[in-house]
Protein backbone atom coordinates (compact mmCIF):
# COMPACT_ATOMS: atom_id res chain seq x y z
CA UNK A 1 0.00 0.00 0.00
CA UNK A 2 1.33 3.42 -0.91
CA UNK A 3 1.73 5.90 1.93
CA UNK A 4 2.83 8.76 -0.35
CA UNK A 5 0.61 11.71 0.55
CA UNK A 6 0.80 12.92 -3.08
CA UNK A 7 -1.00 9.75 -4.16
CA UNK A 8 -4.05 11.12 -2.35
CA UNK A 9 -3.92 14.58 -3.95
CA UNK A 10 -7.41 15.69 -4.82
CA UNK A 11 -9.06 12.81 -2.98
CA UNK A 12 -11.19 15.32 -1.08
CA UNK A 13 -13.32 15.77 -4.18
CA UNK A 14 -14.90 12.44 -3.28
CA UNK A 15 -16.15 13.82 0.02
CA UNK A 16 -19.80 14.87 -0.10
CA UNK A 17 -21.01 17.96 1.71
CA UNK A 18 -23.25 17.31 4.71
CA UNK A 19 -25.57 20.18 5.55
CA UNK A 20 -29.16 18.96 5.17
CA UNK A 21 -31.24 15.86 4.45
CA UNK A 22 -30.91 16.19 0.68
CA UNK A 23 -27.14 15.81 1.06
CA UNK A 24 -27.81 12.20 2.07
CA UNK A 25 -28.61 11.24 -1.55
CA UNK A 26 -25.23 9.49 -2.06
CA UNK A 27 -25.83 7.43 1.07
CA UNK A 28 -29.32 6.48 -0.10
CA UNK A 29 -27.77 5.31 -3.38
CA UNK A 30 -25.14 3.31 -1.51
CA UNK A 31 -27.78 1.65 0.66
CA UNK A 32 -29.81 0.70 -2.40
CA UNK A 33 -31.96 -2.34 -1.64
CA UNK A 34 -30.04 -3.36 1.49
CA UNK A 35 -32.20 -4.81 4.25
CA UNK A 36 -29.78 -4.02 7.07
CA UNK A 37 -28.60 -0.46 7.74
CA UNK A 38 -26.57 0.00 10.93
CA UNK A 39 -26.03 3.59 12.08
CA UNK A 40 -23.35 4.28 14.67
CA UNK A 41 -22.30 7.08 17.00
CA UNK A 42 -18.98 8.00 18.56
CA UNK A 43 -20.64 8.78 21.91
CA UNK A 44 -23.94 8.18 23.69
CA UNK A 45 -24.44 11.87 24.40
CA UNK A 46 -24.10 13.89 21.18
CA UNK A 47 -26.96 15.90 19.68
CA UNK A 48 -25.82 15.66 16.06
CA UNK A 49 -25.44 11.88 16.08
CA UNK A 50 -29.06 11.50 17.15
CA UNK A 51 -30.42 14.08 14.71
CA UNK A 52 -28.47 12.82 11.68
CA UNK A 53 -29.51 9.24 12.44
CA UNK A 54 -33.08 10.50 12.62
CA UNK A 55 -32.73 12.24 9.23
CA UNK A 56 -31.32 9.07 7.65
CA UNK A 57 -34.01 6.93 9.27
CA UNK A 58 -36.86 9.17 8.10
CA UNK A 59 -35.66 8.90 4.51
CA UNK A 60 -35.21 5.13 4.75
CA UNK A 61 -38.71 4.71 6.18
CA UNK A 62 -40.42 7.02 3.70
CA UNK A 63 -38.44 6.17 0.56
CA UNK A 64 -37.37 2.57 1.05
CA UNK A 65 -40.06 1.13 3.32
CA UNK A 66 -37.92 0.16 6.31
CA UNK A 67 -39.94 -1.81 8.84
CA UNK A 68 -38.48 -0.94 12.24
CA UNK A 69 -35.67 0.62 14.23
CA UNK A 70 -33.66 -1.48 16.70
CA UNK A 71 -31.51 0.34 19.25
CA UNK A 72 -28.92 -0.16 21.98
CA UNK A 73 -31.57 0.00 24.68
CA UNK A 74 -33.52 -2.23 27.06
CA UNK A 75 -36.37 -4.24 25.57
CA UNK A 76 -39.16 -3.29 28.06
CA UNK A 77 -38.52 0.47 27.96
CA UNK A 78 -38.08 0.60 24.20
CA UNK A 79 -41.17 -1.52 23.72
CA UNK A 80 -43.09 1.23 25.53
CA UNK A 81 -41.89 3.65 22.85
CA UNK A 82 -42.97 1.11 20.22
CA UNK A 83 -46.45 0.94 21.75
CA UNK A 84 -46.69 4.73 21.87
CA UNK A 85 -45.60 5.40 18.29
CA UNK A 86 -48.11 2.77 17.11
CA UNK A 87 -50.83 4.26 19.33
CA UNK A 88 -51.60 0.94 21.03
CA UNK A 89 -54.36 0.70 23.61
CA UNK A 90 -53.56 2.20 27.02
CA UNK A 91 -50.45 4.02 25.78
CA UNK A 92 -49.87 7.39 27.48
CA UNK A 93 -50.94 10.50 25.62
CA UNK A 94 -47.58 12.17 26.12
CA UNK A 95 -44.21 10.83 24.86
CA UNK A 96 -42.54 12.37 27.91
CA UNK A 97 -44.53 10.04 30.17
CA UNK A 98 -43.09 7.12 28.18
CA UNK A 99 -39.52 8.39 28.37
CA UNK A 100 -39.74 8.91 32.12
CA UNK A 101 -39.77 5.11 32.46
CA UNK A 102 -36.11 4.98 31.40
CA UNK A 103 -34.72 4.75 34.93
CA UNK A 104 -31.58 2.69 34.41
CA UNK A 105 -28.39 4.75 34.32
CA UNK A 106 -27.50 6.32 31.88
CA UNK A 107 -31.04 7.67 31.52
CA UNK A 108 -30.01 10.36 29.04
CA UNK A 109 -29.35 7.86 26.24
CA UNK A 110 -33.04 7.57 25.41
CA UNK A 111 -34.78 10.02 27.75
CA UNK A 112 -33.87 13.09 25.74
CA UNK A 113 -35.54 15.75 23.61
CA UNK A 114 -33.99 14.37 20.43
CA UNK A 115 -35.73 11.01 20.92
CA UNK A 116 -38.96 12.75 21.92
CA UNK A 117 -38.95 14.68 18.64
CA UNK A 118 -38.18 11.60 16.53
CA UNK A 119 -40.77 9.45 18.33
CA UNK A 120 -43.38 12.15 17.73
CA UNK A 121 -42.54 12.12 14.02
CA UNK A 122 -42.84 8.31 13.98
CA UNK A 123 -46.25 8.43 15.66
CA UNK A 124 -47.53 11.01 13.19
CA UNK A 125 -46.17 8.93 10.30
CA UNK A 126 -47.68 5.71 11.68
CA UNK A 127 -51.11 7.26 12.27
CA UNK A 128 -51.66 7.27 8.51
CA UNK A 129 -50.91 3.56 8.12
CA UNK A 130 -52.69 0.26 8.88
CA UNK A 131 -51.44 -1.63 11.94
CA UNK A 132 -49.36 -4.16 10.00
CA UNK A 133 -47.45 -1.40 8.16
CA UNK A 134 -46.52 0.80 11.12
CA UNK A 135 -42.81 1.33 11.78
CA UNK A 136 -41.60 -0.25 15.04
CA UNK A 137 -39.05 0.71 17.68
CA UNK A 138 -37.36 -2.01 19.76
CA UNK A 139 -34.46 -2.49 22.19
CA UNK A 140 -31.75 -5.05 21.49
CA UNK A 141 -29.83 -5.02 24.77
CA UNK A 142 -29.55 -7.61 27.52
CA UNK A 143 -29.47 -5.51 30.70
CA UNK A 144 -33.17 -5.40 31.62
CA UNK A 145 -33.28 -8.63 33.63
CA UNK A 146 -35.55 -7.43 36.45
CA UNK A 147 -37.78 -5.34 34.19
CA UNK A 148 -38.23 -8.22 31.74
CA UNK A 149 -39.10 -10.57 34.58
CA UNK A 150 -41.73 -8.21 35.91
CA UNK A 151 -43.20 -7.63 32.46
CA UNK A 152 -43.48 -11.29 31.51
CA UNK A 153 -44.89 -12.42 34.87
CA UNK A 154 -47.52 -9.67 34.83
CA UNK A 155 -48.59 -10.58 31.32
CA UNK A 156 -48.63 -14.35 31.78
CA UNK A 157 -50.58 -14.10 35.02
CA UNK A 158 -53.42 -12.61 32.97
CA UNK A 159 -53.12 -14.55 29.72
CA UNK A 160 -51.47 -17.91 30.42
CA UNK A 161 -51.54 -18.98 34.10
CA UNK A 162 -49.93 -22.35 33.31
CA UNK A 163 -46.82 -20.78 31.76
CA UNK A 164 -46.89 -18.13 34.49
CA UNK A 165 -45.89 -20.90 36.91
CA UNK A 166 -42.62 -21.32 34.98
CA UNK A 167 -42.08 -17.57 35.05
CA UNK A 168 -42.54 -17.47 38.82
CA UNK A 169 -40.00 -20.29 39.22
CA UNK A 170 -37.48 -18.29 37.20
CA UNK A 171 -38.15 -15.21 39.30
CA UNK A 172 -37.64 -17.19 42.50
CA UNK A 173 -34.31 -18.42 41.17
CA UNK A 174 -33.09 -14.89 40.48
CA UNK A 175 -34.70 -13.18 43.48
CA UNK A 176 -31.79 -13.69 45.94
CA UNK A 177 -29.53 -11.70 43.61
CA UNK A 178 -31.78 -8.64 43.46
CA UNK A 179 -30.87 -7.47 46.93
CA UNK A 180 -27.14 -7.55 46.18
CA UNK A 181 -25.19 -4.60 44.84
CA UNK A 182 -24.95 -6.20 41.41
CA UNK A 183 -26.00 -9.43 39.79
CA UNK A 184 -22.49 -10.04 38.53
CA UNK A 185 -20.95 -9.95 42.01
CA UNK A 186 -23.17 -12.80 43.14
CA UNK A 187 -21.70 -15.18 40.61
CA UNK A 188 -18.20 -14.49 41.87
CA UNK A 189 -19.07 -16.36 45.07
CA UNK A 190 -21.96 -18.60 44.09
CA UNK A 191 -22.56 -21.66 41.94
CA UNK A 192 -26.26 -20.98 41.62
CA UNK A 193 -27.57 -21.49 38.10
CA UNK A 194 -30.87 -20.13 36.84
CA UNK A 195 -30.32 -21.25 33.27
CA UNK A 196 -32.67 -24.26 33.35
CA UNK A 197 -35.61 -22.23 34.59
CA UNK A 198 -35.28 -19.45 32.05
CA UNK A 199 -34.61 -21.82 29.14
CA UNK A 200 -37.72 -23.82 30.03
CA UNK A 201 -39.68 -20.60 30.15
CA UNK A 202 -38.33 -19.43 26.79
CA UNK A 203 -39.23 -22.74 25.13
CA UNK A 204 -42.77 -22.59 26.48
CA UNK A 205 -43.31 -18.96 25.51
CA UNK A 206 -42.00 -19.59 21.98
CA UNK A 207 -44.33 -22.55 21.63
CA UNK A 208 -47.36 -20.54 22.71
CA UNK A 209 -46.45 -17.08 21.37
CA UNK A 210 -48.98 -17.30 18.52
CA UNK A 211 -51.82 -17.54 21.05
CA UNK A 212 -50.81 -14.37 22.93
CA UNK A 213 -52.03 -11.91 20.30
CA UNK A 214 -55.11 -10.62 22.07
CA UNK A 215 -52.95 -7.53 22.49
CA UNK A 216 -50.90 -6.13 19.61
CA UNK A 217 -47.47 -7.82 19.41
CA UNK A 218 -48.09 -9.54 22.75
CA UNK A 219 -46.46 -12.78 21.64
CA UNK A 220 -43.34 -10.99 20.43
CA UNK A 221 -43.13 -8.98 23.65
CA UNK A 222 -43.44 -12.09 25.82
CA UNK A 223 -40.86 -14.05 23.84
CA UNK A 224 -38.26 -11.27 23.76
CA UNK A 225 -38.59 -10.62 27.49
CA UNK A 226 -37.99 -14.34 28.05
CA UNK A 227 -34.96 -14.20 25.74
CA UNK A 228 -33.52 -11.33 27.78
CA UNK A 229 -33.92 -13.44 30.92
CA UNK A 230 -32.13 -16.38 29.31
CA UNK A 231 -29.20 -14.39 27.96
CA UNK A 232 -28.89 -12.07 30.97
CA UNK A 233 -27.99 -15.09 33.06
CA UNK A 234 -25.14 -15.89 30.66
CA UNK A 235 -24.06 -12.27 30.42
CA UNK A 236 -23.76 -11.62 34.15
CA UNK A 237 -21.97 -14.90 34.69
CA UNK A 238 -19.45 -13.89 32.03
CA UNK A 239 -18.95 -10.54 33.75
CA UNK A 240 -18.04 -12.40 36.93
CA UNK A 241 -15.34 -14.32 35.08
CA UNK A 242 -17.13 -17.54 34.22
CA UNK A 243 -17.08 -18.67 30.58
CA UNK A 244 -17.21 -16.50 27.47
CA UNK A 245 -16.38 -12.81 27.43
CA UNK A 246 -19.38 -10.71 28.44
CA UNK A 247 -18.96 -8.41 25.42
CA UNK A 248 -19.42 -11.34 23.03
CA UNK A 249 -22.41 -12.68 24.98
CA UNK A 250 -24.02 -9.24 24.81
CA UNK A 251 -23.50 -8.72 21.06
CA UNK A 252 -24.63 -12.25 20.24
CA UNK A 253 -27.79 -11.55 22.23
CA UNK A 254 -28.35 -8.41 20.17
CA UNK A 255 -27.85 -10.38 16.95
CA UNK A 256 -30.27 -13.07 18.14
CA UNK A 257 -32.86 -10.45 19.08
CA UNK A 258 -32.43 -8.77 15.69
CA UNK A 259 -32.96 -12.08 13.89
CA UNK A 260 -36.14 -12.71 15.88
CA UNK A 261 -37.46 -9.26 15.01
CA UNK A 262 -36.71 -9.72 11.31
CA UNK A 263 -38.49 -13.06 11.31
CA UNK A 264 -41.47 -11.51 13.07
CA UNK A 265 -41.74 -8.76 10.43
CA UNK A 266 -41.70 -11.14 7.46
CA UNK A 267 -39.43 -11.91 4.52
CA UNK A 268 -39.60 -8.38 3.12
CA UNK A 269 -38.52 -6.77 6.42
CA UNK A 270 -35.83 -4.10 6.53
CA UNK A 271 -34.17 -2.83 9.71
CA UNK A 272 -32.33 0.30 10.86
CA UNK A 273 -30.02 -0.23 13.88
CA UNK A 274 -28.88 2.60 16.17
CA UNK A 275 -25.86 1.67 18.32
CA UNK A 276 -22.40 2.88 19.27
CA UNK A 277 -19.68 2.61 16.60
CA UNK A 278 -18.02 -0.10 18.69
CA UNK A 279 -21.06 -2.31 18.12
CA UNK A 280 -21.95 -1.54 14.50
CA UNK A 281 -18.48 -1.07 12.97
CA UNK A 282 -17.00 -4.43 11.91
CA UNK A 283 -14.79 -5.59 14.81
CA UNK A 284 -12.43 -7.37 12.40
CA UNK A 285 -11.17 -3.96 11.22
CA UNK A 286 -10.12 -2.92 14.76
CA UNK A 287 -7.90 -4.16 17.58
CA UNK A 288 -10.97 -5.84 19.07
CA UNK A 289 -10.29 -8.85 16.87
CA UNK A 290 -6.89 -9.44 18.49
CA UNK A 291 -8.66 -9.73 21.83
CA UNK A 292 -11.12 -12.30 20.48
CA UNK A 293 -14.04 -9.87 20.48
CA UNK A 294 -16.84 -9.83 17.94
CA UNK A 295 -19.67 -7.35 17.52
CA UNK A 296 -23.06 -6.90 15.93
CA UNK A 297 -21.73 -5.29 12.75
CA UNK A 298 -19.42 -8.23 12.12
CA UNK A 299 -22.16 -10.78 12.82
CA UNK A 300 -24.67 -9.05 10.54
CA UNK A 301 -22.12 -8.86 7.71
CA UNK A 302 -21.22 -12.52 8.12
CA UNK A 303 -24.79 -13.78 8.36
CA UNK A 304 -26.76 -11.45 6.07
CA UNK A 305 -24.44 -10.14 3.37
CA UNK A 306 -26.66 -11.59 0.63
CA UNK A 307 -29.56 -9.46 1.91
CA UNK A 308 -27.51 -6.27 1.73
CA UNK A 309 -25.74 -4.72 4.71
CA UNK A 310 -24.58 -1.11 5.06
CA UNK A 311 -22.54 -0.05 8.11
CA UNK A 312 -22.39 3.71 8.72
CA UNK A 313 -19.97 5.22 11.24
CA UNK A 314 -19.96 8.69 12.83
CA UNK A 315 -17.24 10.93 14.21
CA UNK A 316 -16.38 14.53 15.11
CA UNK A 317 -13.38 16.72 15.87
CA UNK A 318 -14.43 18.69 18.97
CA UNK A 319 -17.37 20.12 20.89
CA UNK A 320 -19.29 18.90 23.93
CA UNK A 321 -20.98 15.73 25.14
CA UNK A 322 -23.29 14.48 27.90
CA UNK A 323 -21.62 11.83 30.07
CA UNK A 324 -20.76 10.92 33.67
CA UNK A 325 -17.39 10.92 35.42
CA UNK A 326 -18.03 7.50 36.94
CA UNK A 327 -20.71 4.81 37.04
CA UNK A 328 -23.96 6.22 38.35
CA UNK A 329 -22.58 9.74 38.54
CA UNK A 330 -24.79 12.71 37.70
CA UNK A 331 -24.82 13.44 34.00
CA UNK A 332 -23.04 16.58 32.95
CA UNK A 333 -22.09 18.49 29.84
CA UNK A 334 -18.38 18.00 29.19
CA UNK A 335 -15.98 19.57 26.73
CA UNK A 336 -14.73 17.29 23.96
CA UNK A 337 -11.19 18.44 23.15
CA UNK A 338 -9.78 18.62 19.65
CA UNK A 339 -8.99 15.19 18.23
CA UNK A 340 -5.44 13.94 18.79
CA UNK A 341 -2.81 14.11 16.07
CA UNK A 342 -2.88 11.23 13.61
CA UNK A 343 -6.48 10.27 14.32
CA UNK A 344 -9.24 9.95 11.73
CA UNK A 345 -10.99 12.98 13.16
CA UNK A 346 -7.86 15.17 13.18
CA UNK A 347 -7.09 14.23 9.56
CA UNK A 348 -10.59 15.11 8.35
CA UNK A 349 -10.57 18.40 10.29
CA UNK A 350 -7.16 19.34 8.90
CA UNK A 351 -8.34 18.70 5.35
CA UNK A 352 -11.36 20.97 5.89
CA UNK A 353 -13.35 22.05 8.95
CA UNK A 354 -16.62 21.13 7.27
CA UNK A 355 -19.15 18.38 7.76
CA UNK A 356 -18.78 15.63 5.18
CA UNK A 357 -20.11 12.27 4.04
CA UNK A 358 -17.68 9.65 2.76
CA UNK A 359 -18.71 6.59 0.72
CA UNK A 360 -15.61 4.42 0.75
CA UNK A 361 -16.09 2.40 -2.43
CA UNK A 362 -16.61 5.42 -4.71
CA UNK A 363 -12.92 5.51 -5.58
CA UNK A 364 -10.06 3.04 -5.03
CA UNK A 365 -7.73 5.76 -3.76
CA UNK A 366 -10.34 6.78 -1.21
CA UNK A 367 -10.72 3.20 -0.04
CA UNK A 368 -6.95 2.75 0.12
CA UNK A 369 -6.40 5.96 2.08
CA UNK A 370 -8.77 4.89 4.84
CA UNK A 371 -7.55 1.29 4.92
CA UNK A 372 -4.49 2.53 6.82
CA UNK A 373 -4.84 2.00 10.57
CA UNK A 374 -5.64 5.21 12.45
CA UNK A 375 -7.05 6.04 15.85
CA UNK A 376 -10.84 6.60 15.79
CA UNK A 377 -12.45 8.29 18.81
CA UNK A 378 -14.93 6.36 20.97
CA UNK A 379 -16.54 8.12 23.95
CA UNK A 380 -18.50 6.04 26.44
CA UNK A 381 -21.10 6.99 29.04
CA UNK A 382 -18.20 7.38 31.48
CA UNK A 383 -15.84 10.02 30.12
CA UNK A 384 -12.80 11.97 31.28
CA UNK A 385 -11.63 14.54 28.71
CA UNK A 386 -8.22 14.76 30.44
CA UNK A 387 -7.66 11.11 29.51
CA UNK A 388 -8.49 11.74 25.87
CA UNK A 389 -5.71 9.57 24.42
CA UNK A 390 -7.33 6.46 25.88
CA UNK A 391 -10.51 7.01 23.85
CA UNK A 392 -9.26 5.96 20.42
CA UNK A 393 -9.80 2.58 18.75
CA UNK A 394 -7.17 1.63 16.12
CA UNK A 395 -9.27 1.20 12.98
CA UNK A 396 -9.08 0.57 9.26
CA UNK A 397 -12.01 2.86 8.55
CA UNK A 398 -12.89 1.74 5.02
CA UNK A 399 -13.09 -1.88 6.23
CA UNK A 400 -14.89 -1.05 9.44
CA UNK A 401 -17.69 0.89 7.70
CA UNK A 402 -19.24 1.27 4.27
CA UNK A 403 -19.81 4.99 4.82
CA UNK A 404 -18.82 7.63 7.36
CA UNK A 405 -20.48 10.86 8.54
CA UNK A 406 -18.03 13.42 9.88
CA UNK A 407 -19.45 16.37 11.86
CA UNK A 408 -16.66 18.82 12.62
CA UNK A 409 -18.09 20.38 15.79
CA UNK A 410 -20.77 18.73 17.88
CA UNK A 411 -22.91 19.55 20.93
CA UNK A 412 -24.14 17.53 23.87
CA UNK A 413 -27.68 16.23 23.51
CA UNK A 414 -30.59 17.52 25.60
CA UNK A 415 -31.65 15.15 28.42
CA UNK A 416 -35.08 15.30 30.03
CA UNK A 417 -33.37 15.68 33.45
CA UNK A 418 -34.54 12.25 34.61
CA UNK A 419 -32.50 10.80 37.45
CA UNK A 420 -31.81 7.05 37.74
CA UNK A 421 -33.72 5.05 40.32
CA UNK A 422 -31.59 4.91 43.50
CA UNK A 423 -31.93 1.12 43.78
CA UNK A 424 -30.69 0.44 40.25
CA UNK A 425 -26.97 -0.09 39.65
CA UNK A 426 -25.25 0.34 36.27
CA UNK A 427 -24.51 -3.22 35.17
CA UNK A 428 -23.00 -2.56 31.79
CA UNK A 429 -19.85 -3.22 29.84
CA UNK A 430 -16.91 -1.98 31.93
CA UNK A 431 -15.80 0.59 29.33
CA UNK A 432 -19.25 2.12 29.26
CA UNK A 433 -20.08 1.74 25.59
From TrEMBL:
Domain of life of the source: Bacteria
Gene Ontology process terms (BP): response to antibiotic
A Pfam family it matches: Erythro_esteras
Coiled coil: none
Name the UniProt record assigns to this protein: Erythromycin esterase homolog
Native organism: Salegentibacter flavus
Top-level taxonomy: Bacteria, Pseudomonadati, Bacteroidota, Flavobacteriia, Flavobacteriales
